[in-house]
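Researcher: Quick test of sequence recovery. Tokens follow.
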């Protein structure tokens, strides 16, 4: 089975040319989220785990992070805690949006002290992505 997806940027959705890091171990999730980000007029930078995300943060300009929670090697919670506690400003204060399929109310009860700025639940939509970008990037 061949999957073809064609996206045309919507001029109403375009914002600044932000570089947004998408961290997820599942290729399909990275791909779909990156296409939604591109539809907002921004660039998606992809990482398959937290270790790779930290390498990217140290070497490239990133404005915002979408971070999956459950990943091998270094999960989203460990990665977010590392960014908040071990990296210097302004990297330590970069906006981080948690990606999860869990109930958002339970998620924030369990992980309120990790350092996530926002949460987005799966499935993703262009409206959810746009709303979070606008809310977190000045």
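Model:
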């Amino acid at each position: 089975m061949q999957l073809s997806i064609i996206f045309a940027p919507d001029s109403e959705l375009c914002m600044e040319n932000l570089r947004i890091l998408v961290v997820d171990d599942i290729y399909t999730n990275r791909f779909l989220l990156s296409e939604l980000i591109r539809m907002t007029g921004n660039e998606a930078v992809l990482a398959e785990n937290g270790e790779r995300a930290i390498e990217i943060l140290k070497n490239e300009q990133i404005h915002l992070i979408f971070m999956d929670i459950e990943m091998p090697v270094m999960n989203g919670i460990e990665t977010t805690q590392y960014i908040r506690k071990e990296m210097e400003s302004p990297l330590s204060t970069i906006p981080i949006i948690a990606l999860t399929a869990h109930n958002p109310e339970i998620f924030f009860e369990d992980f309120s002290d990790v350092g996530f700025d926002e949460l987005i639940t799966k499935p993703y939509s262009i409206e959810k992505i746009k709303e979070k970008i606008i809310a977190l990037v000045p």
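The longest strand covers residues 19-23.
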